[in-house]
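User: Before I run my own analysis I want an independent prediction to cross-check against. Here's the chain; please return only the structure tokens and, at the end, one sentence I can use as a sanity check.
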Amino acid sequence: MKYLFMALFLLFTISLVTAAPSFTFKQYETVNLKIPVVHSNNSQVDSNTVCNITIRDTKDNVLVNNDGMSFNNGGLFNYTLTNTSDLGEYPVSVNCNNAVDFGFSTFSFEITPTGKVQQSILDNSVLIIFGILAVLLCGLGIYSQVPWLGFLGSLMFILGGMYTIIYGFNNITDMYTQGIGITILGVGLVFMFTSAYEWVTGVSEE
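Assistant: Structure tokens:
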């Protein structure tokens, strides 16, 4: 069976990378899945082939139940998903047939806050930049007694806190990462009001 051979090959390939989903998309953005389907001899399928897709969310609830996919030139079948609010891995199964042969395959895609897979905090360059600038500017402001440097540093703390509240750490966004973000935001507000008071009045809090 032509498609069965293709499906078994894909299943074997995907089973080797189950720890890392095949595709990664950004939260709330439209997911456009394009699935290549070929015969076992690598020849392209035509529009007589019908492919249906089933998608489950991160809680294993069925989002899409055996919906038809659109056929595109080059043997690609397309499906567009707009409900991508939940973070995590979405299991997908696709079945194809042309009234004679049948094929089946599974894979997954992941929804993250940034659309990227982050394995380490070092992968989050935006947060690192905010942190370095915040500490550097606030430290220089305190050392040199220049309030406006501290004010600029406080803005970096605030932006870093807001970023953490929205995007979290390493694709994890929950009450704990939001609590850390709120704490960073609070530190930034303290620096902001203190440096602004000294800047306007010329009176140090020391």
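Sanity check: The chain has four helices and eight strands.
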